[in-house]
Records
---
Amino acid sequence: MHRTPAVMLLAAALAASAGCADVEGLRSEGDLGTVHAPRTLWKNIRPAPPEPGQQPGAAAVVPGLPKVADLSMRGVDTLDVVRADITAATAQDGGTGRLVDPRAVQRLALCTQAVDGGPDCPVRPRVLHDLTGDGREELITALDIDGRLSELRVYTVRDDGSIARVLSRRAVLEGVEVAAEHLAVREPSSNPEYVAVSDYVWDHDAGSMSLEQLTLDECRAVPDAPLSGDRSPCAR
């Protein structure tokens, strides 16, 4: 799989502006235009800092859930966790959509008391994978909102048995991949030839999954294999 980081694209652009080299040294490609310094737009306008608890990716204990005695996610009900998390986040952000899509609660109402939530439940089958490196598996799932947009969630069990959300991400999930202690989220970009890949890793100090790298990938994920434990092949 060939990834094209933004720095590689920048390097290619710089190479084009500098001209080409051959055995005789540098040769001019002609007038490529005047190079201008970047122009800063709206430099006097800055966003207000987020209020406490209003950061979408911040880790937080999910309220209203019993503690897990054996510290394992295997016996935890995925729907119970997602319901508790979505309900709390909706109440916290007051329906503004900063923490969770305002339609999420209505979508969850489609889930029944069946083990898998029933045929209309928009919560994806869970995946268990150790992302923190402590030997305990995290719970990875997603709530599909409208057939395109989804709320991706990752939960862990802390040492005291409480369940905490360590990653929340609203995205168009073209693909989600796990490998070792990495979770990669693949999303469409403005260029149909590429997908944007956000690589998250465990940040021990923050107690959450943090973005480590953002790249562009020429390979597109297989659409019918979300949240797979295997690396997706290229699909042209």
---
Amino acid sequence: MTSMPFTHPDLCSLAVNRLQRAPGRSGPACQVAFSEAKGGWNGEIPDAIGFRTAAEDEGTVVVEVKVSRSDYLADRAKAHRQDGAKGMGHYRYYMAPEGIISLQELAPRWGLVEVSPKGVLRVLSGHVTVKRADQPARRHERAISREWLLLASMLSRVGNVEAMHAELKRVKNEQARLARELVTLRARKRANMLSRAVAGIDTAQPLIALRKSV
């Protein structure tokens, strides 16, 4: 078994980064992802969870980080592992150092991400390793109310969500205004350049005619 130079928080941070990876990099492309957040109930605290907000592919992905063999075995005995519908995540993965978990002992539909001593992630199994049409077969029933509560809990820590939303709308509107202004300025610049070019041609024509006459 390979020694691991990373702590549990280190691997949780790697898990969040992986959740945000694009599909082309073997990632689930979650727009929102965070680690080790409590949701206000006694039960599952995901090491990392990601939320996809695209309407055509809505869903959640959970990554459980295990730094030792005993840690993995203890996790399998938890209530929300014995009854998967009580857990979170449409798609679920373990992330562990090389040699901690084997593919053969994974519970049905679970994925596995191995971490090398240098921090390189290798996805050995999971929904991102199969074609899009085959991914639904890897989905779990999950406790969606707990996911909503967890997400609401995280939003509550941000502060005044409505004020932030209003500021984002203001910034977006300002960006749109500046973009329109830029288009207008560019069109005006092209028109001025064209006018100067035409004026130059008009000025040059008499001179050309004079030279020809000489």
---
Amino acid sequence: MGLFKKKVKQDNLAANAELAQLLLEGEDMLQQLQVAHLEGWGLGSADSWGLDQTTGLLTWTFPDKVATAPAQILGSYSHNSGSWMWAWANQSILPEMSRDSLAVREWAEAGGHHSLAEPSRKADDSQVASLTAIAVRVTRAAGYYRGPGGSGYTVMTFGPVTLTAADGTTSSFAIDVQ
């Protein structure tokens, strides 16, 4: 919980308790989603992945199948600058691809969690994991993916997964998030 190391005033304790509880719930969700998608269709073991912002589809390619899912971009992390940028603040991301990140910003502003509503921030991998957990919990995403890139990574949420086998048959994998 490296994101919450600042000392707080007495009147912020309730808000911070709420945020700490949300973080714990989000971390639990991340773990459950990761296991379910790994066991259900192999998330994390694809040969390659790609995101088409114009269609909103996240695609994973395997030797025997292709998996696709509607996606949203939460944000991106740069190892070089040690910083996180929310998708809603990144002009290279189409607005329709940043709805989940905007929902997190709106939730943060409404709840008085102003540091979570800043366009970008200094962060490390642990803090990005905390931001992801909070975002997945707030949006109740059915899945999340940390797409590796050259000098960092992009964090995305996704919905139901369509699996297309090499022979053209399709099936679906969905998680009902409570």
